[in-house]
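How a chain folds remains the central question behind the approach discussed here. No coordinates are needed to read the tokens, only the vocabulary itself. For completeness, the protein is quoted in full, as a sequence line and a line of structure tokens:
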Amino acid sequence: MKGNGLKYGLIAAVLVVWGLIVYKLFFKTTSPATVDPVITYEETEAATHLPDTLILVANYRDPFLGKAPKKKTVTQPVNGSANRKNNTKKQVVAKQETPWPKIKYGGMVKNQNSEKVVALVQINGTDRLMTEGEVYAKVLVKTIGKDEVVVKFGKEEKRVGK
């Protein structure tokens, strides 16, 4: 019975801890110094009638599709008359160009027998083996070189090196 002294000591410690918890919950009175003061706020007329100045601009690219939103044409009535068809004018908003995808050139592989050249191109994180004239994600591979590849996206061309 070597562990009896330790067992009784632990039981006494548990009783003391629970006794303190019960004492603090039920028997301890709060003194006036520990009472939380009640804070009241008075609203002024100027604070309640402020105009909303928040403007939400949502012209960022879609995180799931990777495309920026396209702007549409807006038809507005002229001279306040909305009933006549010929009194409307179109306000043309310029289309926002789609940004270039992220392109990395990994290198080229050349078949010794057929002289076919294949380039390892990474477009937006997707690795592709592409030949000259092949299109993926609207990116056209025009020429493949040892140290660089010439790609075309839309109407622009770029040289992408290793």
